[in-house]
Amino acid sequence: MFDIYTIGAEVLRQKAAPVENFDAELSKTIETMFTTMKFGRGIGLAGPQVGIGQRLFVIQLEGGKPFVFINPEIIGTSQDLSEYEEGCLSIPGTYADLQRSASVQVQAYSERGRPFTMEADGLLARVIQHELDHLDGVLFTDRLPERVRERLLKQYEKRMRA
Ligand code: NI
């Protein structure tokens, strides 16, 4: 299992580098990311969250199938937005409503290096956007209005000190 890095860790703020080797080590990393995500009761986990500065993330919605996205790029987004309560394993216990594109078209590589494109909507589209942000050093709280963000992060810090 990996340790999950929380807000304040530098790796969460860096732009992750493309994955270049689709090898056994990558497979092992992905497997361990799924284990770590499930243990933390998360539905998505990105490389930087476990200290790996590479462009990959895993997603598994409750009762759904596992998805692996490597070197992902969003190639299309819907005009319409949806609002939903979001959280993050890197900011435990912090949740806020956030608007994102209701659906996205994403291009990525599989664990074996095969390219694919996918259209996603609903919760899957949301999680893809959230995880992709992690690869660019962006946390969901960055996307909240400043006042909301400051209040939530103050509460978070208070909880962490307690
Ligand atoms: Ni997150």
Could you explain how this protein is built, in words?
This protein is an alpha+beta fold and 162 residues long. It has one domain: Peptide Deformylase, CATH 3.90.45. The chain is 28% helix and 27% strand. It contains three helices and seven strands; from the N terminus they run H-E-E-E-E-E-E-E-H-H. It has helices spanning 24-39, 122-135, 146-161; strands at residues 44-46, 56-59, 67-77, 81-86, 96-101, 103-109, 115-121. Strands 1-2-3-6-7 form a five-stranded antiparallel sheet, with helices on both faces. A two-stranded antiparallel ribbon has the order 4-5. Strand 6 (103-109) and strand 7 form a beta hairpin. The longest helix has 16 residues, at 24-39. The two termini are 26 Å apart. The relative contact order is 0.18. The mean pLDDT is 97. The chain binds nickel (II) ion. The site of nickel (II) ion has 5 residues, from helix 2.
Major sheet summary line: 5 strands, antiparallel
The number of distinct structural domains comes to 1
Q: Any idea what the CATH architecture is?
A: Alpha-Beta Complex
The CATH class, by name, is Alpha Beta
Q: How many H/I helices?
A: 3
Q: What would you report as the Rg, rounded to the nearest angstrom?
A: 15 Å
What fraction of the residues are assigned to beta strands by DSSP? Answer: 25-35%
- C-alpha end-to-end distance: 26 Å
Overall 3D geometry?
globular
Order of helices and strands: HEEEEEEEHH
Q: According to CATH, what is the topology?
A: Peptide Deformylase
CATH H-level homologous superfamily name: Peptide deformylase
